[in-house]
Every structure is written in C-alpha cells, then in structure tokens.
Design brief:
130 residues; alpha/beta; Rossmann fold; four-stranded parallel beta sheet; 4 helices; 17% strand
Length: 130
Amino acid sequence: MTLKTASILLAHGSSDPHWLAPFDQLLQRIRSSLTDPQARAELAYMELAEPSLQTQVKRLASEGYKRIDVLPLFFAAGRHLRKDVPAMLDELQQQLQQQDIEISIHLHTPIGLEPEVADAISQVVLRQMQ
C-alpha cells in the first residue's frame, strides 16, 4: 500500500486579492495537469491570507494523509523559509503527534532555486531587453 501523499503550494500571502489571484490560477493549472487520480495539490499561505499552512496541514492530516510535501512558491530561501516555516511545521507535527496522528511533513527548497525557473526568468528578461 502506498502512503497517502499530498502537496501544499506555499506562498507568502497578502491581504490584496489581486496578489492572491495568480496563485489560485497556478493551483488550477497544476490540478488540471495531474494525471494521477490519487495526487492532491492544495494552496496555503504563510501569513495575511487564508487558508493558512496550519489549516491545510491539519485538514489533510484529518483526511488521512500521511505525507505532506510543502513546495514553497518563493524565489529564494530567506528567513521565512530557513526559520519561520520549519518552526511552524515542527510545531504542527508535534501537535498532531500529541493527537496520535503520525504524519511526515517535508519542506522542499523554494521553486525559485530550480534551474528551470532560472532559465524561464532569464528568457523573459532577455526578451524584454531586445
């Protein structure tokens, strides 16, 4: 039996709905491209918007997910990703363990550090410079 796994796309968050809209669009684009019917993708915000990271992790855990991959939609790993988010996830994991819910939460590197993202940004910048 495979582990029930979900992915959370984590964005910083904002109170501005115009800032949030592209993240909702990205989530819908990803969901429509999934070919595995068991694959689950959700969106969460670190602060200033809902759903929060805590809300999404707790919801997925209550639905029986045993592994959650947190994929930061950040350009680089600043203080939030080096300190704040790992502390949040450690606290969440401890809270869930106290409720006898065993779950593995894995924080990935920010997508901005992926070579494909750097290539795409470079292409856009070079196109704009012409």
